[in-house]
Amino acid sequence: MARRIPHSVSYPQSVTDVHAALTDERYWRDRIAEVGGDNARLDRIEVGDGTVSVEMTQSIPAEHLPAVVTKIRPGDLEIVRTEAWQELDGERATGTVTARVTGLPGELTGTVTLSPAGTGSTVALDGEVRVPLPLIGGKVEAVIADRIAEIFEHEDAFTSGWLSLRE
């Protein structure tokens, strides 16, 4: 069974301005440095004409994990994430998000959509975490979903500040 991760954030900036940030290499370098956590790194970034594909590695310290996780995967969790954004299509842009935990089966997959919302814009994620482990998979999915949601909230706050500085 999978655990859904619906997540959205609104920005006062336009779709065009948010998309420009999401496809800016400096944004990604600043974001990983500011909110990526200990040992976070930007492994790959490919910026095209209105597109971007990013791979990054982040970790969750073992002391922030429940016993159900540390019993099957001792130590810090290393999360390898990818995010890709397509060109603007009118007033919308779409993308994909994936994440996998090194040493554990399962992954997060999802689609992201940037669209207008009033005078600003919204980025919405429709994702799910799937950990195919008998008996404890659901518990591990819940932990990963909660931690990913926390990471997203920190990234949302960073993005708000980053966008505000460029106005």
Description:
The protein has 167 residues and is an alpha+beta fold. The protein has a single domain (2-165), classed as START domain (Alpha-D-Glucose-1,6-Bisphosphate, Chain A, domain 4), CATH 3.30.530. The chain is built from 4 helices and 7 strands. It has a 7-stranded antiparallel β-sheet, covered by helices on one side. The longest helix is centred in the last third of the chain and has 29 residues, at 137-165. The protein is globular and about 45 Å long. The mean pLDDT is 89.
Write the layout of secondary structure elements.
Blueprint: E1 2-11, H1 15-22, H2 25-35, E2 41-47, E3 52-60, H3 67-72, E4 77-85, E5 93-101, E6 107-117, E7 120-130, H4 137-165
Antiparallel strand pairs: 1-7, 2-3, 3-4, 4-5, 5-6, 6-7
Strand content: 35-45%
Low-confidence stretches: none
The rounded Rg comes to: 16 Å
Q: How many distinct domains?
A: 1
Q: Looking at CATH, which topology would you report?
A: Alpha-D-Glucose-1,6-Bisphosphate, Chain A, domain 4
Order of helices and strands: EHHEEHEEEEH
Q: Classify the secondary structure makeup into a structural class.
A: alpha+beta
Kindly report the name of the CATH homologous superfamily. Answer: START domain
List the quaternary state of the chains: single chain
The total count of helices amounts to 4
CATH class: Alpha Beta
Total strand count, please?
7
Strand neighbour order, sheet with most strands: 1-7-6-5-4-3-2
Average pLDDT figure: 89
